[in-house]
Design a protein that fits this description.
With 248 residues, this protein is mainly α. It has eight helices and no strands. The longest helix is centred in the C-terminal third of the chain and has 31 residues.
Length: 248
């Protein structure tokens, strides 16, 4: 005699709308929709919402936590619950909720990613500046920073000023270039580093260190005193020992 077992697998069941509450909560809410008595249906749904609070208490500290639970209950029940909502609870469908606007990502040249996005922002600011010594100095600062960034990511290879100069013109579409007779790009970086070290030394130099003359003098006096005490003690010891001899 053969027997057939009708087994229910989750793969053949209805898809869980909110997995954080589990399949049991979804089944209870589906059953609550079939209750004909309004009072019994109201109490059943309220008990299920309280059970949802126990099942998923992670967001309990939020101000609108209880309202979010009721919205989740209606969402699981496909917004087909015929009950009276508690005071202050508003049900909003997912399609009716305002969605944040899409934020565009900055366009960065893939070929020169080692310079970073800030270089492009500095170049745009330099392009908007009027021609003159101030703009030339700003462009030189940008080129010096470019070389510093290039050397950071290419420590094993030598980076010349000509490479940075060509990249500067390419990234800026030929709108920026180093002026004739500019100094080496390493000079500005070294000078900026030297100023930073001088600033740190000036901040630490505000604290005067105690002079060591008094301490050394006191220690020297204590050392001489200890030597003198040992010598005099030795003399007394020798005299005492001499006086303590008995004549035979």
């Amino acid at each position: 005699m053969s027997m057939s077992l009708d087994l229910l697998y989750n793969t053949t069941s209805e898809v869980i709308r909110l997995p954080e509450y589990g399949r049991t909560i979804q089944g209870l809410l589906q059953h609550a929709k079939t209750i004909t008595d309004p009072r019994k249906r109201q109490k059943t749904v309220e008990a299920i919402v309280n059970m949802m609070m126990v099942v998923n208490p992670t967001n309990r500290n939020q101000e609108d936590y209880r309202e979010k639970l009721w919205n989740h209950a209606f969402r699981i029940a496909n917004y087909e619950l015929d009950i009276i909502l508690p005071p202050g609870i508003t049900i909003r469908r997912e399609e009716d909720k305002p969605k944040p606007q899409h934020m565009g990502y900055p366009k960065i040249t893939q070929r020169f990613r080692h310079y970073g996005y800030n270089v492009q922002a500095l170049m745009q600011k330099a392009i908007e500046m009027p021609d003159g010594p101030k703009r030339e100095g700003f462009v030189e600062v940008i080129a010096s920073y470019m070389k510093l960034a290039y050397k950071t990511w290419n420590k094993e290879h030598y980076v010349s000023d000509d490479v940075v100069k060509d990249d500067l013109e390419i990234i800026s579409d030929g709108q920026l270039e180093l002026h004739e007779g500019h100094s080496s790009l390493d000079v500005l970086a070294y000078s900026a580093r030297g100023k930073d070290q001088d600033h740190k030394r000036s901040r630490s130099g505000g604290r005067r260190q105690p002079q060591g003359n008094d301490r050394s003098g006191g220690s020297a006096r204590r050392e001489r005193g200890s030597r003198g005490g040992s010598n005099s003690g030795g003399t007394r010891g020798s005299g005492g020992s001499g006086g303590g001899r008995r004549r035979k």
